[in-house]
Each structure stands twice: as structure tokens, then as C-alpha cells.
Amino acid sequence: MRAELKKVCEFWADRGVDGLRLDVINLISKDQAFPNDDIGDGRRFYTDGPRIHEYLQEMSRDVFTPRNLMTVGEMSSTSLENCQQYASLDGASCR
């Protein structure tokens, strides 16, 4: 899935776009055990998953930074603390 997401971003970058909006991008990392949520709606298992920052750093390194793309990421059901990590000024996550 990450490889396909990269291809989509590269497709548009190759056609001259300067930036991309990444809709609910914080949902691309999930607990691979796919546990049931007996006390809620499952958000705690599919939002801000265990490898989300690793995946976004990979996208930044491989796609966004080399093409100087501006990105806007919509974050569904996340916390203020997580938003601060996503928007880090050093560009270590999603740029």
C-alpha cells in the first residue's frame, strides 16, 4: 500500500503539482494483530498506528523532499500531542 501511495504522489509530482493533500494519512499504520475493540469503536487500533511516523518519514525522504513538495495532511481522530509530532518543524515526519 505504501508503494502505491508513493506512485500516486510521484504521478502527480511528475505532472507539475507543487503540493499534495493527504487525506486521513494517520490511518495507514495499524496493529497487525487486528485486535477487536470490546470497549470502543476501534479507533485506538487504527489511528496513529505503531509505525505511522516511520511511514511518513519514508514518504518525506523518498517523495516529498526530493521533489520539494508541500504537503497538507488531514489527521482523523488524533490528539494534540500527535498533531505536534506530525507538524514537527524539523520536517522529520510529514513535510
UniProtKB/TrEMBL annotation:
GO terms for molecular function: alpha,alpha-phosphotrehalase activity. SUPFAM superfamilies: (Trans)glycosidases (SSF51445). Keywords: Glycosidase, Hydrolase. One of its GO terms (biological process) is carbohydrate metabolic process. The keyword Hydrolase applies. It is an enzyme of class 3 (hydrolase). Residues 2-89 form the Glycosyl hydrolase family 13 catalytic domain. Its EC number is 3.2.1.93. The keyword Hydrolase applies. This is Trehalose-6-phosphate hydrolase.
